Amino acid sequence: MQQTLTLYLQLPLFRRLKRNALFIMFIVHLLLYLLTLPVIMSLSDDDDISYHRSPLLLNTQGGLNTQNGEVEPAVKALEARQDEIMRKLYELKAAVEGLAKTVTTPDADLDLTVSSSSSLSSQSPTSTTFRGTTDLDALLGKDLGALRDIVINANPAQPPLTLLVLHSVLCQRYRVLSTVHVHSSASSVPPQLLSCLGPRHPDSYARQMFQLGFTLIWKDVPKLQMKFSVQNMCPVEGEANVARFLFKLLSPYPSDPAVATLVDSWVDTAFFQLAEGSSKERATVLRALNAALGRNPWLAGPEFSLADIACYCCVLQSASASSAPTNVQRWIKACENLGHFGPAKLYLK
């Protein structure tokens, strides 16, 4: 069924209809037909399929039809078939909701879907304790019956290593349904970026089993974009801002305004000077890092923070690690010992 749907999506006609509500309705009806046809064909003419228990299951007194005090095998079989249909319809409803969100997002108008879902990551355990709550309702507000989708458009020429690291940490804390897609505007994507979120999870078809959806779309965009509330179309631009949003799902920002400002300052320094600055600017930042790390084990004080994640990734991405001063070299090793940075190091290899 998945292969058939993929072939339909690659036809020119359906590429033009992707933003049309009729396309979504077509997908819904096609999936319903393909999913329920084998079960319906296996039923007899007397079977009554509905969203409620079949009348065949009840006798004239309103109880279950029994044979010697036990439910008849035919009735049991029919009940099992109806339960299976209801289970598949529920899963299909969740899948179509996710598909509709993707199709109705202009920046996620996909022409080619490649690698797929991962999650419930089996990353190595870490010694860092994030103190934030794991209750997403408390963090994001209640959203009954829908998977909270984080959709990120990123340019493969500028892979967001910070977000890959944060994704791996999110997978340790939440049940995350992770998906990688390629937009037609991205001419070539390295293989390691197609699998940057890990292998397909065996339960990826059952969206209701997950707490977060993390969709990464490789696309030719000038600046990284994130849409969390797809219906309201509220984009967040820039890797630094998206990293701040994701980190708050793991741990609250420091309550001390001075420490919070220090974290933000290091994050901005990482992306504007380490990642995009000249060699002279990078050398200046490395000296500042060395001085700060001579006073504290981490950049914002005694605790690991987003500042460490952002600066570590930008130091590696700018190829400045080999020429870093002593305190920075020690800090790099301390970061790597935490086990969070496997995705970033894997890409750089």
From TrEMBL:
A biological process from GO: translation
AIMP2 thioredoxin-like domain: residues covered: 146-237
GO annotation, cellular component aspect: aminoacyl-tRNA synthetase multienzyme complex; cytosol; nucleus
Record's keyword annotation contains Nucleus: yes
Transmembrane stretches, start-end: 21-43
Family matches, as InterPro entries: AIMP2, AIMP2_thioredoxin, Glutathione-S-Trfase_C_sf, GST_C
Coiled coil: none
Pfam families: GST_C (PF00043), Thioredoxin_16 (PF18569)
Keyword Acetylation: no
Domain Glutathione S-transferase C-terminal as annotated: residue spans: 276-337
Major location category of this protein: cytoplasm
Subcellular localization, as worded in the UniProt entry: Cytoplasm, Cytosol; Nucleus
Protein keywords: Cytoplasm, Membrane, Nucleus, Protein biosynthesis, Transmembrane, Transmembrane helix
Protein name: Aminoacyl tRNA synthetase complex interacting multifunctional protein 2
